[in-house]
Protein 1
Amino acid sequence: MIPRTAAALLNEIRTGYPVITLTGPRQSGKTTLARTAFGDKPYVSLETPDEREFAELDPRGFLARFPDGVIIDEVQHVPALLSWLQTDVDASGQMGRFVLTGSQNFSLMANLSQSLAGRSALVQLLPLSITELRQAGKLPDELDALLLRGGYPALYARAVQPARWYADYTQTYLERDVRQITQVQDLGSFQRFLRLAAGRTGQLLNLASLAQDADIAQSTARAWLSVLEASYVVHLLRPHHRNWGKRIVKMPKLYFLDTGLAASLLGIQTSAQLAPHPLRGALFETLIVGEFLKARWHAGWPSNLYFWRDNIGLEIDLLREEPDGLYPVEIKSGATVTEDQFKGLRKWLAVAGPEARQARLVCAAPESYTRSGIDVRRWQDAAD
């Protein structure tokens, strides 16, 4: 197992909450992390039919088997069990008693809020980050290799072709999760919608255009996009709310949470295909935005990430809103750093005034350094 940065968070919060909930996309490593971090606890999966039936029909008896707590995998399959967990943890007062995992944010979060509010700590686990891969000696040397492979742990644990693994992953996702979350009558239409969404990663989300291209109603596109967001397939990056005297864009930007999955949906399987592809820059931006998001979520913090764009074309790819101000980040996929790449950052710094903090340019340069007061980071150090 590649060590996960979220393990430190689990160790910290286990003494302060009776329930710890790990959520994230399927195959992101939730079960492995839970069983490693809580090796003293028994494990049960509610994807196993007999265990699921036991939990549904006799929740009291199901929980009585585990007097010292348990890891319950894919708990969203039996939402009623959460009410029984509430009764149990309130009676015992024991911290770190139950560890839950789930990969469907829709139903899981709704039931957690209803039954375990204030009792459960939430940890969102995404696929492997650049930092985790680098520390484990697993980070690909070539940027394009990482863009194609993505961060799912299975692709670094066993000999499997990324293109084939992602094709299977997509099919499994379509057949299992989509039908459980919402009514999708035509899986072919949904898969087409998924490919079209991948083609918009790193771009402003124009829902009407996406719906038209997918030949579906705009309301359907909105519902399906919510499914993708709830399943940790995509993330919507919101525009920063400050105006600074200019009209700002209000649409969010769409990002896939794994570049390997996005590349697979786009039909990109090799570095030779990726190098000249018009969306290579968007995939690189997707990778870097994901790195900053992983750094926040794996440390137990909500996203503090935004973008900024005004109506005359001035744009900052990423704004990190910290207590002491705003940190702008520009993302460029090229390996050569030119003065022209700093223009957007300098204009924004002038507009933002005293709220602006250290500006950063993340790119494919061979080394990290400071140039003209701007922090230039190679992609391997993007979110450090």
Protein 2
Amino acid sequence: MEQNISVGLDIGTTKIVAMIGRKNEYGKLEILGIGKSRSLGVHRGVVNNITQTIQSIQQAVQEAEAAAGMKIEEVTVGIAGQHIRSLQHSDYITRANSELVIDEDDIERLINQVHKLVMLPGEEIIHVLPQEYKVDGQAEIKEPIGMYGGRLEANFHVVVGQVSSIRNIGRCVKSAGLQLEGITLEPLASANAVLSQEEKEAGVALIDIGGGTTDLAIFRDGIIRHTAVIPFGGNVITEDIKEGCSIIEKQAELLKIKFGSAWPGENKDNEIVSIPGLRGREPKEITLKNLSKIIHARVVEIVEQVYVEIKNYGHEEQKKKLIAGIVLTGGGSQLKHLKQLVEYITGMDTRVGYPNEHLAGGNDEDVTSPLFATAVGLVMDGVKRQERKHSEQVAGVMEQHGDTSEEGENEVEGQPIKERRSFLDKLTERVKDFLDNAE
């Protein structure tokens, strides 16, 4: 595959998307091909049928390859699912020599200490995200590298997931004939695709409403502060319509997309949809008011659960207020009047997030749909990962030639990148090693 081309694979509950993209000369993302298939072996973000998932992945990948006219080898995969949870944790290290400045190794040591936290059986730490540091009791330090101090402590946002679920996804990708280039947390991928840097600074909650789960990521001061996965999504709404109106799932899904609304007040009592009966049976008549009442009840439940998580983060404290409010994305965000309902329940400014922030012009309209937010984010992540690999190779070559002119400077600048990426890369390595040894 070409140097700067990257592939995102979003393994969702309702659909699997393979997206091929590359960065153009203006630094924007150009989408070369998209493949989409129905996801049959995934339930609430967790693989529950390996064979079906492999088939769905292959179908999506073939479609993307045909559209882009190239072969896919490596993919960046997103993980979400109801097994993901997060916690806050503080830890510290005492440095042997406080006469030396704090460097990368000290931070690495502190972070590795967090990795030793005891988790529930089968759970593993996926992400350790430093929030802010304290050096010798001096608080609110964003970047401690280069400072003097004996005691280095930090608050961490720790994301935990079930290692078996992650390995199953790795297994599906490998069995579909692909290599795992990287693993990313889906709420983070969606956030990269639809949020602007200003929103992340001001404080914002991203709600990604998928088919099986609703993912939440909260940012403030440019740093991720809280993540959560709520085990409900668009599918439960479809289920409710199916049972409430006694119709088949396919009809329920169409009804939801075409006529569904999250706000029952706006439908008149006499607005009726007629649904053909099965095999010559009488057609069914459903009032739109009833339909939106069913949808409304379930959407309120989902939004209230998300709001509980936002309150858990501490949005009601003045210091932690999310000024930029809420951004909705994912397929479920296209439901009519959802924005108004979310504003009504939470009292926070809300907008629907489209992944066009980083996309080059001239892409199909489909690509900029909230449906593809995660896939776009995964492609962006893959591109970043390749750029890092490339710059590391260049740095390696320069070192061999003894060209270390600006070395000290780059070390400090490049620090957060190096440190941030190591966990997911370590996780990717571990999953790869596990799969290689398990063959």
Protein 3
Amino acid sequence: MTGSGLRSLVIACVGFALLAAPPARAQEVRVPPESRAQIQESFAPVVKAVAPAVVNIYTRKTVAVRTRPNPLLNDPFFRQFFGDQFGMGQSVPRERVERALGSGVIIDPSGVIVTNNHVIEDADEITVILSDRREYPATVVGRDPKTDLGVLRIDTHGRALPYLQFGDADSLEVGDLVLAIGNPFGLNQTVTSGIVSALARTSVGVTDYGFFIQTDAAINPGNSGGALVDMHGRLVGLNSAIFSGKGGAGSIGIGFAIPSPMVRAVAQSLLAHGRPVRSWFGASGNTVSADVADSLGMDHPYGAIIGEIYPGSPAAHAGLRAGDIVLAINGRDVQDVAGLRYRLATVPVGESATLTVLRRDEHLKLTAKLMEPPETPPRQSTTIGGRTPLTGAEISNLNPALAEDTGIPLGEGGVVVTRLAEGSVAARLGFRPGDMLDKINRTKIDSVATALKALKSAQGGWRVEILRDGKRLAMSVDG
């Protein structure tokens, strides 16, 4: 998203939230306005009911900065007379206080608030201001950078707060009216209206679980974590990002919100565990291409074609096979692999998902009971010392839980570089986090213990073979 004429993606501050699932209801019949009088009807009743549950969030954090030395102090003539008594040529460490603003949504009357992770990340102090101007210090219940969501709690001393109920974002249609409420540019309780411009946007690049509602309701910096509500006053999304013109930071009518099912699932996980706990499926896949769709006689390309299946995973127990195409999860269409990840991530741990699968020319219904990603085998994370090519690298046994935490492809497991000490031997030799150790001096590396033994027993030098982005790389280092 760079270059002449292109647009840059700007994090805006917007949000949604609610923990209670919406009640089942009959299918609504939507009709367009039939007169100018209907178009001019006011949103005031909806705003009046919703606005008290939307809060302003102010954060404060102290960051260390180093000031650049005065160029005069590096002048040889100046140094000849004054030496280093002024700290010549050295940067001076200083502290600077950074303040930021955003929005949030009360999802429980006891004082539980959902917002964007980027609003509260690394904050030293967080202040929540209600619509009636009451102020409360907030504590962080948990954060989930992968979905850009976070949960706060404020102590109201037993006083119940207004809150929003979750709506069903899956029932939205392009063209539906929505309202965005937040704190743009510090302008408290600002309400903007618009329509749903698109659904299931998966190429936005804001989070690892990209699946966004696109709206033309004006969203600006400060709206992040604020509410996107439907005409019934229900929370259908959490405003998170905007698309702005090059060099700009204002709304041009393209905003993105995290759908309510994801907000609800992450909030429940953070409240229960203090950390994100996502359901694990145990299979990788790719988006169905036009060529594949044509070869299978599909009307158009959609769905996710399954590649690798981890042994003993929910996908394996469900009877899924490599080459199967997942078309829907729990009756909701899966357009691509990002949609598959989103749908599975919104299914709580321990619950079952019904998969609609195309296998050759047969449509099947499979049931997968999702589980928390297992820590098997144990990670045994170890930082390598001594004198080896991998000194300063942390290596770990790759298991499903680690793969979920880091985004490293699970494959069949193995040993992976998870961290590198700055300036270490391993870093200088070009190793990277995510590198899979394949062989050391012809010894196949299947565990951390095997890697440590191979490094220690080497005589005369080391030949290390790794797998990186599907390529095999080798390095020889003399002892």
Protein 4
Amino acid sequence: MKEALNLLGLARRAGRLAAGRQAVRRNINRGKLLILAEDLSAREKERWHSEGKKYGFKVLEFSKKDELGRALGMRPVGILLLMDRGFARKMEVLLGEENLQKDSSR
């Protein structure tokens, strides 16, 4: 998880990450991967999952709002959009490995 949070910070510094509802809406056409906080409301998650389908990019749920915000050096944030294919692929790999590790420990 720490690697994934570090990657988000790097993407933000590189200008390849939109954080928050308004920033994501402004950049939705450039999106490659949408990340939603696990503690986002069910209604909000449903809305953004349909946006992902509409624009043709994956939507992943990861971490909590306060952890995401802390990793980015900002207040808690629940919606992030990666706008770079390389960052998006790396994030999918990191989160995929993390989910595999959680499943194998059961």
